[in-house]
Amino acid sequence: MDIVFTSEEFAEVERFKSLYPQPKAAIMPVLWMAQKKFGWLSEDVMRYVSSIMNLPYSHVLGVATFYTMYFKKPMGHRHVQVCTNVSCMLRGGEDIFNHISEKYGIGHNECAADGDISLEEVECMGACGGAPMIAINEDFYENITIEQIDAILAGLK
Q1: Which of 18, 57, 84, 104 pairs with 142 at a CA distance of 20 to 30 A?
Q2: How far apart are the C-alpha atoms of 62 and 126, rounded to whole Å?
Q3: Considering the entire predicted model, what is its pTM?
Q4: Residue ranges of domains in the chain, CATH in brackets
Q5: What is the edge-to-edge ordering of all strands in the sheet holding 134-136?
């Protein structure tokens, strides 16, 4: 796969840069854009971002490795995040994580062999009142049950 942005994507990078007093502050939305396009942030993708942002690779790598929202390895088509922090844990978050893990044969930050689903245990999704909570890609589900998760995942194939 060629690692290159289209002219429209370059325009979006420039728009992001224009939103901040220092262009390097646009690194997070540009990394997010790169991850959405390429699926994850490989070393080559991060080097590409560093070149178009005119930043040292070490700066891009530092940002990408600090934030867990950036994938440093391929993840599944359906990336499931399960909150297991206190509120979610008390309302079944760990059971939900374990159910998905056992059903698909994957653990934390692992991807099924077919690339369809990956699983991540997260600390807090900021919805304690709606615990337990999960996210599938960018869709969030509160007060979730194992039965609901199975139905949602079956419907997303």
Answers
A1: 104
A2: 25
A3: 0.80
A4: 7-66 (1.10.10), 78-155 (3.40.30.10)
A5: 110-111, 117-122, 78-83, 134-136, 139-141
- Separation CA 145–CA 68 (nearest Å): 25
CA–CA separation, 109 and 153 (whole Å): 18
Tens digit of pLDDT at every position of the chain (157 positions): 799 999 999 999 999 999 999 989 999 999 999 999 999 999 999 999 999 999 999 999 999 999 888 999 999 999 999 999 999 999 999 999 999 999 999 999 999 999 999 999 998 888 899 999 999 998 999 999 999 999 999 887 6
Nearest to 147 by CA among 99, 78, 87: 99
